[in-house]
Design brief:
It contains three helices and five strands. By secondary structure, it is α/β, with parallel strands linked by helices.
Amino acid sequence: MYRAVTDIGEVRKYLSQAPVIAFDFETAPDEAYRAEERAALDPHKTHIAGVSFSVAEGDGIYVPLAHKIGAKVPERGWAWCKSVATSSGTAGRMTRRSRKTSGTP
C-alpha cells in the first residue's frame, strides 16, 4: 500500500522497525523552469518537493515537504528528515533507490 503521510510520528513509526529503508527524493521544477520539458530531472533547475520511503516491496509512504498546495509536513520535517538520514541507528539501514524513467539518461 502506498500513501502520503504528513505526521512525523507516523513516519517514525513506519521506519522504526525496518531492517532496510529505501528512499528517493521527489523533485519539482523551480518557477523559472516550469514550462521547460524535463526540468524536474535537472538538479540545477529543481527543488526537493518530498521524500518517498519504503520498508518492503509493495509498501511505501510519501512525505510532502515543499508542496505549494495541499497538506505537507511542517517546517520541522526538513530537520527531522536530515536527522533520520544522518542518525547512526538509521543511516546503516538506508539505501537510495533511483527509478529510471523511460528515456532518462
